[in-house]
């Protein structure tokens, strides 16, 4: 390419593979010039791929799939080049947990919800990072598991992941489902408690993927270089001895090639400490990726048709390339 490959991402700790590949010169080692574009929201990421201001992006599968179907006003030919991580999403609620630990399913979970809701004094307002998100699907499944109807019992708001901290502080929301490290940070600041998340709702679910539009996917040399660089980054990330360094680097300001993340919370999400929802990075090509449950839920919500379900399942159930 005659210009740098523009890669979109958000201020999340599971952006680590791409951050590391860029900052440590791994992309450059394989002949790629890259530019990281830190976007304020997932809507900006999707629009960047649609209108060709981005050449690639870290995304969760539901948004990438819906974008590829033209739900952002134009139908780009998107492709998941690689799956990067699974899990890591937290369901957090502000206030005091009426139980010890995460909530059980069934009647005991519903009883905990009612006790908690009484302390809120209103119909709870819960946030997700985008309507077409893994987080929305995880939150819906969590609520259903304790007998809570998302449409009737709560209100849903959409906000970028980092904004949940200030929203909990000022009481404009009562919790939500958010990616790492922001749910963990809210708990460390005693703004919220962990009620559930990826591990309890849908263990080992695909979370972040490296998604490319047609213009990038058709260049096999570029795609191979991306995969090789990310593979090297994954090896570094999976080494527990490197996690403190990774957390420190991600906590650096944007102008110092970091993401300005809270360091302690980021480290906990990398290690899975203190019952924190851990972000798992792909280990090898033998791991199987599956988006069928997402597509089933998306069809049940009326987002996609059966024909679209079949098309997306074939296109998105790609091998995990690491």
Structure description:
GO terms for molecular function: ATP binding. Pfam families: NMT1_2. It is found in: Periplasm. One of its GO terms (cellular component) is periplasmic space. Its main location: periplasm. With 322 residues, this protein is of the alpha/beta class. The chain has two domains: 5-86 and 206-286 and 302-316, Periplasmic binding protein-like II (D-Maltodextrin-Binding Protein, domain 2), CATH 3.40.190; 90-201, D-Maltodextrin-Binding Protein, domain 2 (3-Layer(aba) Sandwich), CATH 3.40.190. It is built from 16 helices and twelve strands. It has a five-stranded mixed sheet, sandwiched between helices. The longest helix is centred in the C-terminal third of the chain and has 19 residues, at 220-238. The model has no long low-confidence stretch (mean pLDDT 93).
């Amino acid at each position: 390419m005659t210009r740098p490959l523009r890669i979109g991402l958000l201020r999340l700790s599971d952006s680590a593979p791409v951050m590391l590949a860029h900052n440590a010169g791994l992309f450059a080692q394989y002949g790629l010039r890259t530019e990281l574009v830190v976007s304020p929201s997932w809507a900006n990421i999707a629009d960047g791929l649609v209108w060709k201001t981005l050449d690639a992006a870290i995304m969760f599968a539901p948004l990438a799939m819906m974008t590829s179907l033209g739900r952002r006003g134009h139908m780009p030919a998107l492709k998941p080049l690689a799956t990067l991580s699974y899990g890591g999403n937290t369901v957090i609620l502000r206030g005091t947990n009426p139980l010890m630990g995460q909530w059980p399913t069934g009647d005991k979970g519903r009883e905990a919800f009612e006790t908690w809701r009484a302390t809120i004094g209103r119909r709870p307002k819960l946030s997700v990072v985008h309507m077409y998100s893994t987080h929305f699907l995880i939150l819906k499944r969590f609520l259903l598991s304790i007998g809570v109807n998302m449409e009737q019992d709560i209100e849903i708001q959409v906000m970028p992941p980092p904004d949940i901290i200030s929203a909990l502080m000022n009481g404009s929301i009562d919790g939500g489902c958010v990616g790492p490290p922001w749910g963990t940070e809210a708990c460390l600041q005693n703004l919220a408690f962990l009620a559930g998340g990826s591990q309890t709702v849908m263990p080992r679910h695909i979370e972040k993927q490296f998604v490319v539009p047609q213009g990038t996917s058709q260049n096999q040399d570029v795609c191979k270089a991306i995969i090789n660089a990310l593979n090297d980054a994954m090896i570094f990330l999976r080494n527990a001895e490197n996690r403190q360094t990774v957390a420190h680097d991600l906590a650096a300001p944007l102008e110092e090639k970091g993401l300005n993340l809270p360091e302690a919370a980021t480290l906990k999400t990398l290690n899975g400490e203190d019952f924190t929802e851990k972000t798992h990075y792909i280990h090898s090509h033998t791991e199987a990726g599956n988006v069928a449950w997402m597509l089933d839920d998306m069809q049940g919500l009326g987002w996609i048709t059966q024909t679209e379900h079949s098309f997306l399942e074939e296109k998105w159930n790609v091998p995990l390339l690491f």
